[in-house]
Amino acid sequence: RDELLSSGFWAESRGAVRVPLNIPAGPPDRCVCFGLGRFSACPIARDQLAFLLLLLEELRVPPARCALFDPAFSAREAAAALEALGLRLLPENEEGKHGVGGSATLFYMVHCGKALYNNLLWSNWSPAALSKLVIIGNSFRGIEERLLSRILERDYSYIAKVLKGTEELALPSHPRYLDTFNDTSVHWFPLDKLQELSPEVWNFVEEPTYQDCEDLEIIR
């Protein structure tokens, strides 16, 4: 935490992370974190956890309203996250299929697999639900640029379909945190942009399946 503050990276990032305060759905009153990793052993995961705690303070989301899940968490880490930091753990692996339930929700998903983002979108596949959702995670623009369009549409169809309804703002690049927050953006989904998408986009709501995908760690 102190290193993030002293490095200047947090100060440079504040403009981007404050975006959720100004979305029409209102500021998030809860947060869900997927895929944080083994923060007791991994410096990158510790930096991402410190960033999450600063983020909750900035957005005034109480730690008790932030839930985490990662199958890699040890029992000791789970206890630390719960007891020492005031956060709570989701009781089971939802595979990213977490509905907002009518509440503006921030999802903190740095460096997660594409299937996890795809599942999250599917679980909230309506303009009303998506407009209440903010994602801090891998750049959707970057995913579009790196994948062949036929692969994106076949394997991650919900990411592909929502691209034209997405606003995205990248976190700044900082030499100290190139491996920690590279390719990370804030994403939100304005209701007016979602409503401009064709009705066919919303009619297809088949649950995603993954046959030949490589980034399914938290899914499996």
Automatic annotation (TrEMBL):
Start and end residues of each SRR1-like domain: 27-188
Alphabetical list of InterPro entries matching this protein: SRR1-like, SRR1L
Pfam family of the protein (one): SRR1
Entry similarity comment: Belongs to the SRR1 family.
Entry protein name: SRR1L protein
Organism: Campylorhamphus procurvoides
Higher taxonomy: Eukaryota, Metazoa, Chordata, Craniata, Vertebrata
Cellular component, GO annotation: cytoplasm; nucleus
